[in-house]
């Protein structure tokens, strides 16, 4: 598959402090994003995700490195016309209505009247804000603001969309709505570059990820390749047994009333546990095998990195 974004050996430092001292934030970053995928750019706070994004968009200049978008220099008009961007903390002029806000950006792209109206209508539909077209942005909830921000990032019908923490600060429903919109964009053939540290969201929707720690990409690849299917342990919730009955079978995690939850690491212990439950006429409420998650890998990598 063709790479739509190629970043090679990117270095960026900032001068900080009263007596300015150079601090290197990006220490030779390389990765590529392929056409049609959702690419997750992961890293803890301060890792350099937004800095990478700003370099890619030409908002700040790297000290060293190459960036190509659709095979063109990232600073060229050919590249810029084909990208969209939702910043980390977008600025909203709050006295505009949803419709006026999108109209403003549509005009920046010199869209004709008919095309502009159609685009705005279809974007409002995509982000589920048709009814907010006449509502001022100051009356929008946080989730609505994120969605109108996303609509703005799509106003020029871009092929590659950069989203910096689009799910930050949203409740579970808001996150699901936004995830569904992002998946819909992928189905339409767009490529999505998603910066986030909400690992579950990344795990649910990204095809490939790069993990950034301390200004270096320490791992990148397909999610299936990073996260193994190996069962780490089985979480068992049961009642009718005492903690002393369970000794040596697993590690108790919590207990509520009669219910005990424990982690069982060895498979033969599960069989022994089931036999014990039958013998003592106790009850198993759930038995859930836990495979490795992106969070396990991420925590381990950040610790080592
Ligand atoms: N203009 C600047 N001047 C000095 N230091 C900066 C500047 N911009 C960013 N930094 C520093 O660079 C580091 C990386 O910041 P960046 O915003 O890229 O991190 P991030 O990975 O996006 O973090 P977050 O998850 O919190 O958004 C931070 O330590 C930050 O303080
Ligand atoms: Mg950031």
From the alpha-carbon coordinates, what is the Rg to the nearest angstrom?
Answer: 24 Å
Q: Regions with pLDDT < 50 over 5+ consecutive residues?
A: none
Percentage beta strand: 25-35%
| Helix content estimate | 25-40%
Return the CATH topology of the largest domain.
Rossmann fold
User: Overall pLDDT, averaged?
Assistant: 90
Note the gap between the termini: 30 Å
CATH architecture of the largest domain: 3-Layer(aba) Sandwich
Describe the structure concisely for a colleague.
The chain is α/β, with parallel strands linked by helices. It has helices at 49-56, 77-80, 98-108, 113-126, 142-153, 172-187, 199-205, 223-226, 267-279, 294-304; strands at residues 3-16, 21-34, 38-42, 64-69, 72-73, 83-86, 160-164, 191-196, 208-213, 216-222, 231-239, 251-256, 259-264, 283-291.
Describe the structure.
The protein is α/β, with parallel strands linked by helices and 305 residues long. It has helices spanning 49-56, 77-80, 98-108, 113-126, 142-153, 172-187, 199-205, 223-226, 267-279, 294-304, and strands at residues 3-16, 21-34, 38-42, 64-69, 72-73, 83-86, 160-164, 191-196, 208-213, 216-222, 231-239, 251-256, 259-264, 283-291. It folds into 2 domains: 3-226, Rossmann fold (3-Layer(aba) Sandwich), CATH 3.40.50; 231-304, Alpha-Beta Plaits. The chain has 10 helices and 14 strands. It has a 6-stranded mixed beta sheet, with helices on both faces. Strands 2-1-4-5 form a 4-stranded antiparallel beta sheet. The structure holds adenosine-5'-triphosphate and magnesium ion. Adenosine-5'-triphosphate binds next to strand 1 and helix 1.
């Amino acid at each position: 598959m063709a790479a739509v974004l190629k970043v090679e050996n990117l270095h960026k430092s900032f001068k900080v402090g009263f007596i300015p001292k150079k601090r290197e934030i990006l220490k030779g970053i390389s990765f590529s994003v392929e056409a049609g995928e959702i690419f997750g750019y992961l890293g803890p706070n301060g890792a350099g995700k937004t800095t990478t994004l700003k370099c890619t968009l030409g908002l700040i200049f790297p000290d060293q490195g190459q960036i190509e978008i659709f095979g063109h220099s990232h600073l060229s008009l050919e590249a810029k016309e084909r990208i969209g961007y939702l910043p980390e903390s977008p600025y909203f002029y709050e006295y505009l209505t949803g419709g006026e806000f999108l109209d403003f950006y549509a005009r920046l792209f010199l869209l004709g009247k008919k095309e502009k109206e159609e685009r705005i209508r279809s974007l409002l539909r995509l982000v589920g804000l048709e009814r907010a077209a006449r509502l001022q942005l100051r009356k929008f909830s946080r989730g609505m603001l994120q969605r109108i921000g996303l609509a703005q990032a799509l106003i020029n019908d871009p092929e590659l969309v950069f989203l910096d923490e689009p799910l930050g600060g949203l409740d579970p429903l808001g996150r699901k709505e936004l995830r569904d919109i992002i998946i819909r964009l992928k189905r339409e053939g767009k490529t999505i570059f998603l910066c986030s540290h909400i690992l579950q969201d990344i795990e649910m929707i990204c095809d490939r990820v790069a993990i950034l720690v301390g200004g270096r990409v320490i791992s990148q690849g397909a999610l299936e390749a990073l996260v193994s299917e190996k069962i780490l342990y089985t979480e068992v919730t049961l009642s009718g047994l005492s903690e002393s009955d369970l000794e040596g079978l697993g590690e108790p995690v919590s207990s509520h009333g009669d219910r005990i939850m424990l982690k069982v690491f060895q498979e033969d212990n599960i069989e022994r546990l089931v036999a014990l439950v039958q013998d003592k006429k106790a009850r198993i409420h759930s038995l859930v095998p836990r495979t490795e998650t992106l969070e396990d890998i991420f925590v381990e990598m950040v610790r080592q990195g």
